[in-house]
Prior knowledge:
9 strands, alpha/beta, binds S-adenosylmethionine, two-stranded antiparallel ribbon, globular
Amino acid sequence: MAEWDEEEESTLPVLPEEHFVRVVYNGREYHQLSLSSNAYLAPIDEVEVERLQMTHDMFSLVFDDRLIFPEITPLRRVLDCGTGTANWAVEVARREPQSQVYGVDVSTEMMPMYGYYPVNLHLEQADLNEGLAYHDNTFDLVHSRLVAGGIDAEKWPEYIRDLHRVLVPGGWVQMVEIYFNAQSDGGHLSDNHALSHWSRHYLSAMESAGKDPRAGLKLDHWMREAGFTRMEMREITLPMCGWSHNERDFGIGVANQENVSRLLSSLALYPCTAIQDMTIEEFHLLVGQARQEAAALGLKPYFKAYVVVGMKRAGAVSHRHSSSKSSSSRHRKGRNGKRVPR
Length: 342
Ligand SMILES: C[S@@+](CC[C@H](N)C(=O)[O-])C[C@H]1O[C@@H](n2cnc3c(N)ncnc32)[C@H](O)[C@@H]1O
């Protein structure tokens, strides 16, 4: 088990200026380093911060306000990978004040300002594609939600092995990914619908960018390969609007509608027009039509989400393999200036 002093102030330098540089592309603000390193291709502006709150609220309905699915006691240390606005991590830190929660993201730009989140939350910068720099056998829970837009396709097995490595024996991983392939209840959506065109363009643009937009469907396979046990997977329908006669799903659809309307543009803008060759006019036209269809009750449109949990075997103590960088060379200063357990 790693040891560190949670109150210790880091003596490491603050992040270099380049981590705070934004670039405007077709009216949206992006994190320049994330674009230049091909780590993440969605905006990081206020509109996106709002949208991620909508996503989080929608998931709160889907999961009946449960943040953590397995029973974990004691919950001492939690890691949230690709924490973004830290919506999930902030709530866990509030509800579990005895635990230390760590949120890591390639960009600190959407994170809340220091002083505006619980003191048991520690936010820091790192690229998940470079491997986790935390000590082996450290966390009771690792959470990873909606990072498929950022993990390099070929890095997924290694990423999940790394999640396994940093868990304490008996610790849990909890992963959630959406498959952005529009479908419809009753098969109302044809290949010619704009939502279907949008899906094909988005999925193929993400593949061109070296990502795996179908990662959600493979999580359980990669987790099994990494050695997880007691795995449970759920495939969940996320209605794009309030088309369901089921009261609960109707509520989820209503909560999801604005989120979907915004993500059709925000997730696909850069991949479709900068990586692939769609013109901005073609893009706006497609998104406008796809938005109408996403809100059309008769079409009954939805995306699927994949939720998987798994446990690291109680006897499985990890040892960092020799090819990983040493922990000392990978210390980085967190957003709040606290040293993190690496
Ligand atoms: C769609 S947001 C989801 C945020 C959060 N997990 C949630 O569910 O609200 C994806 C986040 O993952 C981060 N991300 C994507 N790829 C990453 C990478 N390679 N390393 C670190 N963070 C990454 C992005 O910067 C972004 O903040």
